[in-house]
Structures are given as C-alpha cells and as structure tokens.
C-alpha cells in the first residue's frame, strides 16, 4: 500500500532528487550559510517530528509497534540531532532561540494537526516522507558522489549528512516504518487510505519546500515596514 503512495508522488519525488540544494551539497558548491540555515531549521523540525512519533506511540494498540515508534522518536532526538550538534559545534551555532521559518512552521503545523485530529493510520502516513524521501535522496546523492569521485572538494559535513541518510542503519528504520504504514493501511477503509495517500503527497511537497527555503535563506516578511 505504501508503494501506491510513492507511485502517486513519483513525479514530485523525481524533481526533488535534483533539488539544487541537494545537488550543490554533492558537487561542493553549496554555501555553508545555506547549510547552517538548513540544520538549524531541521533541528526545530526534528523536535516536533519526535513529538509526533511519541504521540503515535501512545495511540498505538500494538505494544511492539508502540515500542518501535518510541525508538524512532529517540533516533530523531539522539542520532539525527547528534549529527546536527556536531555541525553546531563546528560552526559555533545552535538552534537555541531560533525561530521556525515559514516553511518549517507550515510543515510541522500540518503534520501535528494530522497527528492530533485524524485517525492513527493517517498520522503514520503523514510522517512517512520524512523517512522515505530522506533515504531516497540520500542514496541518489551517494550515487552522484561516487560518480563525481575525487574531482570534487566538498565540506566534510555534507559527506556526513549523505552518509547518515544513505546508510544501512537508516534504511532499516525506513523499511520498518514502511511496514508499519502498510499494516495500518490494511485495517482501514478505502476513504481513509485515500486520505493517507493525500497526506503522503502533501508531506512530499513540504519536504521539497523545506529545501527551497534553505536554498533561498527564506525569512519572515517585515510586514510592519511594508516588506512583502
């Protein structure tokens, strides 16, 4: 069933594979300012993502699945945030006091609303792109990195990011989460499965927009002073 969601979003994902932010990470042309912006916003995102996973765990009737969802939440808070914190240390920055930028807030608000107000299966579906799309683009980036070989001099932090999301450990998490979504989809009616697919597609769009935001260094408009 999850594969049907992926197929429905395939044309969108194909564009995301070639997102300028991601490609420039691999070819070494991404400015560190853009990557630093991204990791701060992603740290804010991961806090809400982990909270969503914990809420799903509390609603999960299957004890084994509930424990696995808690493990996913811990992974987001520890493994992924550990990578971010290594970047913060390198550049002398952190996310303390940082504000969620427009697309960060849009994405987290959407997924939190679905988790809080919709059936459990829909909640699982709305978080799936954060697992699956990241693994997919990670592997695409790894392939491009291998093709470029030693011809590129890139920031080691970019390589660390690629290695995490293209790695075997993350792939195992993704496959486990996909299996959970598949199982949930088998227990709901057709209309709920349709909504699961809609949430998946929307989150795929929001993933793309998250990288758009970092590429543009998006800020909130200064409305009071007439900025648009």
**Percentage of residues in DSSP E strands:** under 5%
Shape: globular
Summarize model confidence as the mean pLDDT: 93
Structural class: mainly alpha
Give me the strand/helix succession.
HHHHHHHHHH
| Rg from Cα | 18 Å
Main sheet summary? none
User: In terms of per-residue confidence, which ranges show pLDDT below 50 for 5 or more consecutive residues?
Assistant: none
**Helix percent band:** over 70%
Question: What this model shows, in words?
Answer:
The protein is an all-alpha fold and 228 residues long. The protein contains 10 helices and no strands. It has helices at residues 2-8, 10-17, 20-27, 32-59, 63-91, 102-117, 120-148, 156-165, 168-185, 190-216. The N and C termini lie far apart (42 Å).
Write the layout of secondary structure elements.
Elements: H1 2-8, H2 10-17, H3 20-27, H4 32-59, H5 63-91, H6 102-117, H7 120-148, H8 156-165, H9 168-185, H10 190-216
């Amino acid at each position: 069933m999850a594969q049907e969601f992926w197929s429905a979003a395939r044309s969108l994902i194909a564009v995301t594979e070639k997102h300028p932010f991601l490609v420039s990470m691999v070819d070494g042309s991404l400015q560190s300012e853009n990557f630093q912006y991204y990791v701060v916003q992603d740290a804010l995102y991961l806090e809400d993502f982990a909270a969503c996973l914990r809420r799903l765990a509390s609603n999960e009737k299957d004890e084994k699945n509930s424990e696995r969802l808690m493990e996913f939440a811990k992974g987001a808070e520890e493994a992924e945030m550990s990578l971010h914190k290594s970047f913060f240390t390198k550049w002398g920055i952190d996310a303390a006091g940082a504000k969620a930028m427009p697309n960060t807030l849009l994405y987290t608000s959407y997924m939190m609303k679905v988790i809080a107000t919709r059936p459990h299966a829909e909640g699982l579906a709305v978080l799936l792109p954060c697992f699956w799309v990241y693994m997919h683009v990670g592997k695409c980036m790894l392939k491009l990195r291998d093709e470029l070989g030693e011809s590129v001099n890139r920031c080691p932090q970019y390589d660390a990011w690629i290695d995490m999301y293209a790695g075997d450990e993350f792939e195992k998490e993704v496959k486990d989460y996909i299996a959970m979504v598949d199982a949930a989809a088998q227990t709901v009616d057709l209309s709920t499965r349709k909504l699961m697919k809609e949430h998946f597609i929307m989150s795929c769009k929001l993933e793309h927009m998250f990288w758009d935001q970092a590429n543009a260094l998006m800020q909130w408009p200064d409305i009071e002073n007439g900025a648009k």
